[in-house]
Design goal:
2 copies of one chain form a homodimer. With about 625 residues, chain A is α+β, with helices and mostly antiparallel strands. Chain A contains 19 helices and 28 strands.
Amino acid sequence: MSPKITGELLRQLRQAMRNCKYFSEPLQAYIVPSGDAHQSEYIAPCDCRREFICGFNGSAGTAIVTEQHAAMWTDGRYFLQASQQMDNNWTLMKMGLKETPSQEDWLISVLPENSKVGVDPWIIAADQWKNMSKALSGAGHSLVAVQDNLIDAVWMDRPERPSTQLRALGLDYTGKSKADKITTLRAKMTERKITWFVATALDEIAWLFNLRGADIEYNPVFFAYAIVGMNTIRLFVDLKRLSDPALRDHLQLDSPSKPELSIQTFPYESVYTELQAICAAQGPKDKVWICDKASCALTQVIPKAHRSAIPYTPLCLAKAVKNATEIQGMKMAHIKDAVALCELFAWLEKEIPKGNVTEISAADKAEELRSQQKDFVGLSFPTISSVGPNGAIIHYRPLPETNRTLSLNEVYLIDSGAQYVDGTTDVTRTMHFGTPSAFEKECFTYVLKGHIAVSAAVFPNGTKGHLLDSFARAALWDSGLDYLHGTGHGVGCFLNVHEGPCGISYKTFADEPLEAGMIVSDEPGYYEDGSFGIRIENVVLVIPTKPKYNYRNRGSLTFEPLTLVPIQVKMMSTELLTQKERDWVNEYHRKCREVVGAELERQGRKDALEWLIRETQAPKGTL
Amino acid sequence: MSPKITGELLRQLRQAMRNCKYFSEPLQAYIVPSGDAHQSEYIAPCDCRREFICGFNGSAGTAIVTEQHAAMWTDGRYFLQASQQMDNNWTLMKMGLKETPSQEDWLISVLPENSKVGVDPWIIAADQWKNMSKALSGAGHSLVAVQDNLIDAVWMDRPERPSTQLRALGLDYTGKSKADKITTLRAKMTERKITWFVATALDEIAWLFNLRGADIEYNPVFFAYAIVGMNTIRLFVDLKRLSDPALRDHLQLDSPSKPELSIQTFPYESVYTELQAICAAQGPKDKVWICDKASCALTQVIPKAHRSAIPYTPLCLAKAVKNATEIQGMKMAHIKDAVALCELFAWLEKEIPKGNVTEISAADKAEELRSQQKDFVGLSFPTISSVGPNGAIIHYRPLPETNRTLSLNEVYLIDSGAQYVDGTTDVTRTMHFGTPSAFEKECFTYVLKGHIAVSAAVFPNGTKGHLLDSFARAALWDSGLDYLHGTGHGVGCFLNVHEGPCGISYKTFADEPLEAGMIVSDEPGYYEDGSFGIRIENVVLVIPTKPKYNYRNRGSLTFEPLTLVPIQVKMMSTELLTQKERDWVNEYHRKCREVVGAELERQGRKDALEWLIRETQAPKGTL
């Protein structure tokens, strides 16, 4: 990996900072955040501006260029990678270390008095803008919105914004028509006396219109905005995408059923001026809903007195609670996904002893097997396929220069998932194809105990997911161990594999309570640096349950695993499991055998079926 | 309980609102918060302004009076009591119910345009002021600081502010001299480039100067402020209190050891003008530390550019981590407290069958027995002594009209504690003196399992207490049960029984991580409305522990119970306990027998010793 040569680029950028045609005075600094105008987690190549200017291509990082300095902040996952990808023009700012200044503090320490710091207001979220602006103005500087992106100005071969074909989803996949979704949204708006709602998150817009795209790898979304009023629906999208008659029909563009459900379409770029026009025509009591993580640019169009910035939009909340059709689709997707993984593991068992399987070829095989399943669209995130010490790198992605060969001597961890038209999957299994060490088994068993403690937890309605996080850690903590990531995230239905507003993590307090129909991952782990990594991840569905009592009529919830892939018994120190935990494993394996076995049989995948039966029938006396 | 007649008082208050001599225009509304100028949890009679104006004397509530309306907000604990204590002039605003408006929303709905809402800036915290002010100005009104309290203006027989005798504590009780505490504080100030620190919380000031008072019932504190600079220490207190030569000696008022440790004393009321003078003389880079919960009045004296408002002051953080002397004192206090309680329970066992013991007489007996112990000062909070259905009222305090007789048929819950010169106690035991029902035993056992799950928890250094809260609930949740309060609070050492910055609760995210030397309560419960209440509370000390492994060298912590009072085995469904839980109970009882038994022996308290031995020797086959 050789670093990107950035001297000339920085020269050009600094020139643009001095001669910014959209701003009368020179800028003393320019901030280049990760991310796009929709605050997406994954971004399209045209939005990889931070990577373009500094060379570092990890998922998180912010670059800041001043007249004298260039610095890039990223977290512990990426220290090594960033230091390899950036040349000497750049200072790596290691976030999380005590000696590393915050971006604000660093700017204040290097800027001349009364400096102007520029940022593209479309790619900085309103809440981040607020914090940065406050810190800078407290020190006599000012943060200024530079409408035209200065990176784009020096990026000669910048890719086009993708405009992939849109896919309309029928009721058999979505379970709820876009008309019903709009009606529900408007009911929420009426309840809160809101007159306009601005949708900026790509997955929310895809969900609302029952449309999918492929603009961003792994995420079946498309670049768009939407503004919904009580009688109008405005969709902002590359209009060329709407020429397909079937699509026009789906959106009822030419013959809306009711006037208030008719969709007016506008070019993607016109959202700013349209929102301005809407705000200019507002009554004194009109209120506009927008997510507090939306771009600063769009947020500030709405006058403060009319703005109601909320952490989770009504679409985000509605989307998180899956309906019966979506749940059925997610179940089907997970059965197909389990078929592919059973086949993969049966294949690995045969092939590994030959010594020809690598992290990359195993990941490729997993993709190939998934792609044979009905309604497969693509992967839901880059496969983490890791052997031995690579498994301890939590966000590892095999590259030719790190690629290890699978063997009978090391632990193998594979975290992978796919997009099917009926659902999204995300599963991690940790296996040993030879004989695991006592320590590996011990750690695996603690992780399994944590996985079960969450999966089998019973908790009252209204409980937030973060209150369950410690259940996943208790067995590890008891032995002085832990893992430094959250325990679970929300999962979309043929949408983003990471979605809000719920999750299971010690890191947040702002998650929304878990509700029946929500879907999250349950993925505790343990990572022994330089040696091995363990993670056991199922996607689980929140379901109602009826324990013995019902305090204050609140009702109780628990989880049902959607992922149905055997958990390797060979890795368990079964003597560390309680009877309740053994029963959980046996019942889980019974269900895998029954449900996935039937599908393997139907698909005539004999080897995988044999493997499944072998892996789910615990040897007598062990479980 | 008959309501307070408030018609004439409200007339006078409204007249004061119209003719406020300190404010040119009339006020359309006046807010009367609970609390004093130090944001104390318990307050002195002279500060019970909300009670004076509306009659409601619960610990939490805010009254707002407009020209037409008078409304009082309180929470579910107090709905019944407030409705009984307030007359028809008042509307009870039931917080937590969906239909109840917030104070801001209600004000906006009833006020005429462009209204002025007054509040005493000394008794509203800076953060509350900010929120209220923002909401009101967003609706065209304004919140104004009325320096003279309008309740005081109409309160003819308002009590004097207490000025009790001060008690100096030597090193044998405090373990750290005030000079050392000042030096540590100044080191923190230097580290953060802070030039002045303003102490407003009464327990922090008492701790800093190793002084105690008795100005507020149950809390050994005294009314004072302190301002500490790098070379000066200013103490604001009723100067009459400082005439005692021993006290002057303790504070080295007449012969300070070093100039920078000399204490300048000022009248209590002059803190405002002194702080003004300090701020006026500040350099451009000077920064003043103040708690963000300090009064709006004092906070706003400090210009925003110089103000560093923090959630927990360095004194609050330092005070929370007890030193070896304090820990030893707390242990001694808990042994004495256990002696008193063993004697109480032995006495109850004999007396209850006679039918003459009531909630009130049992509480009085507990106080009498505690008062016989060395260095007893007073109770640390009003004793909750409750029988049967009264036990389900979480903040119950027996009154003549609710007083029940203890019997062999109902569960008895006593939550009580004391102030000793060497430490503060807080313990809850739930007992049955006849034969508990199967359901009572089942619930008690779930609560016990929760208590043990917290007490025996092992967790990494740096863990916040709120991450342990769910451990206390898991057994209850499994059966569909729960309790609607937090699990634990910080406990002071001969200081307030409730203190920050740590605790164990699902309600907060802003607690500071647990550290060895911190002391918290562990008190899960279960409350069956109309029937019984169960709570098992120990005060526990955070201690280091060494489990099998030590991930990333972080080290691990657990708890050591300081409370040593038997937990009634008769109330346990022992078949529901795991072996680990039984071992915990047996080990706990062994320690109670050994440690408290020795002290009972020493004090010659035979009956209590017999009771202790009986209660801590589990019948064979049950535990």
